[in-house]
Amino acid sequence: MGVGGAADAFGFATRIPNVLQMLLGEGTLSASFIPVYSNELERDEEEAGRIAGAVATLLALTAATIVVLSWIFARQITWVIMLGQTNDPRFELTTSLLRVIFPSAGLLVLSAWCLGILNSHRQFFLSYVAPVLWNIAQIGTVIVAVLFFGVGDTAGFSVDELTKDTTNIEVLGEVARVAAFGFLGGSALQFLIQVPNVRRLARGLRFRLDVGREGVREVIRRFGGAVSGRGVIQISAFADTLLAGAIISGAVAALVKAQILYILPISLFAVSIAAAELPELSRLKDPEEIRKRGEGGFAQIAFFVSFTALAYILLGDKVVSTLLERGQFGPDETLLVWFTLGTYAFGLIPSALSRLTQNTLWSQGDTSGPAKVALVRVIISITIAAVAMQFFDRIAAADVRDALPTLFDPGTRNNALRFGAMGITLGSAVAAWVEAVLLWRLADNAIPGVSPLRPVKALIPALVGAGVVAIAMRFVTDDMWPPLAMILSVGLSGVTYLAICWVTKVKALNVVLVGPLRSLRR
Asked: Which of 120, 379, 441, 475 is buried most deeply by CB count within 10 Å?
């Protein structure tokens, strides 16, 4: 779909359901439900099951109510998202996509509840492989529609025609609609595949509206603070979309594509490690044991995410080109998404470390502190983004590529693409550092001596060495086929990073790589 009107509409339509999913599920449940359920499992499995059933009933009723109301008022919600621009060619498509996608939010919330049950029982694989089905459903639905039913056929249309929103939406809007149905079907699959294991593990599971139980009341109490924290973060993401929608067409799509790559290392490393640690941290009572376990998690997250951030900043165009440059996505689109992603990446390390910092605080019952910090982050992010995007929106992607001819191959010019989205991600990156520092202070007060940033300092020599190699490889691979250039550039700088980590005796290297290899040999 490129980064035109149809891609913008799909980005708009997925934003609200994602907000609902994150607000009621995932991080919010991790903060409120998992610590209570994990503790109860140690005392009484039957009671833990009853608490889980009551929480699921509350979630289902709340999500269903919101989904129904949102489906009815989809047009009004679109009006809010698009700041009242009813004459915008993207308006009607966004409204129709919203109605298809909204029910998936309720299914994803229940899927997050399943994740909480499985994680508390130390079952991590299924809950995190389930979203793969969600992605496969979207990808598979679009592939079938395009290859076998001719959906989104752009033959006979010029680049200039497809740059115009009216033509772009008419032709590629069909692809967006198909992707929306894949989104809905994948959400159902993600939930249903987890249900059998949940029923097997959660003894005493009863789906009743039982809010009188002590454990349920404790979940609700923590849920309020968690929703406040997650809520303001989702408001921030929603505000980013609103801001992107207020500038030139394509900004929303560029922002969404950059977010996919930005979230990837956070999901793979930060969220996975933080999720695995939360039940264990909730069971520990000794502050020293909590500190040691937390710092081990910080070291592992920093080890992976630090290099990823470096690669995104220095080699992001090769990554974006390899993954996305086809169809309506050309060299100018690559440049736009790289600059947007590269700015995001400056806040990647603090964002990743903050996931475990939040979980450490949540395990100790503190949900209000992270919520207040999150509010500060939102205010800073929106303020900087609102100013910076106006400046960057004056810069055209085609002009930047022309000004740097040695770095970018010539291609079809798309003068409609501008760098406004880069200003929005700049606000997010600065705000991520502020949030991280404030969270680290809270964590140090709760657990004296904990230092999330210490592992990053140990990685500085390796990052410098890898950065030098990455810059050198830009010139060596200048004329190569993009996928080969990416493999060589990222691969060689990555090997350099690992080698220097080995020489400087970075402990995380031993935990993540050397330890498993020794176990394999044994």
From this structure: 120
Residues 395, 391: Cα–Cα separation, whole Å? 8
**What is the phi/psi pair of residue 38, to 5°?**
-65, -45
Give 380-419 as a DSSP string. Answer: HHHHHHHHHHHHHTTSBHHHHHHH-TTTS------TT-BS
- Using the predicted structure, report yes or no on whether residue 409 has a pLDDT greater than 60: no
Q: What is the DSSP string of 310-361?
A: HHHHHHHHHHHHHHH-STT--HHHHHHHHHHHHHHHTTHHHHHHHHHHHHHH
Domain boundaries, the chain: 1-225
Evaluate if residue 410 carries a pLDDT over 50: no
Give the number of other Cβ atoms within 10 Å of residue 201's Cβ.
18
pLDDT greater than 70 at residue 496? yes
> pLDDT confidence of 354, banded at 50, 70, 90?
confident
3-state class of 84 per DSSP? coil
pLDDT confidence band for 240 (50 / 70 / 90): confident
Residue 166, CA atoms < 13 Å, CB-side half-sphere: 2
Q: Answer yes or no: are the C-beta atoms of 46 and 81 closer than 8 Å.
A: no
Neighbouring C-beta atoms of residue 353, cutoff 10 Å: 26
Q: Are 78 and 94 in contact (CB under 8 A)?
A: yes
Residues 6+ apart with CB under 8 A from 417: 3, 248, 250, 254, 332, 333, 336, 396, 397, 398
* Helix (H) / strand (E) containing 505: none
Question: What is the average pLDDT across 142-171?
Answer: 80
pLDDT band at residue 331 using 50, 70 and 90 as cut-offs:
confident
Q: DSSP assignment of 108-170, as one string?
A: HHHHHHHHHHHHHTT--HHHHHHHHHHHHHHHHHHHHHHHHH-TT--TT--HHHHHSHHHHHH
How far is the CA of 155 from the CAs of 201, 269, 327, 449, in angstroms? 53, 41, 11, 62
Instruction: Find the distance separating the first CA and the last CA of the chain, reported in whole Å.
Output: 50
Distances (CA, A) of 339 to 59, 177, 266, 344, 453: 39, 29, 19, 9, 26
Give the Cα separation of 283 and 73 in Å (integer). Answer: 44
396 φ/ψ angles, rounded to the nearest 5 degrees? -90, 140
Structure confidence at residue 413 (pLDDT): 47
Q: Which residue has the tokens 């996919």?
A: 260
How many other C-beta atoms are found inside a 10 Å radius of the C-beta of residue 495? 12
Decide: 473 and 486 in contact? Cβ < 8 Å: no
Two structure tokens written together for 473: 């490889």
pLDDT band at 302, cuts 50/70/90? very high
Written as one string, the DSSP assignment of 194-237 is THHHHHHHSTT------TTSHHHHHHHHHHHHHHHHHHHHHHHH
Question: Regarding predicted confidence, which is higher, 414 or 441?
Answer: 441
d(CA 500, CA 310): 15
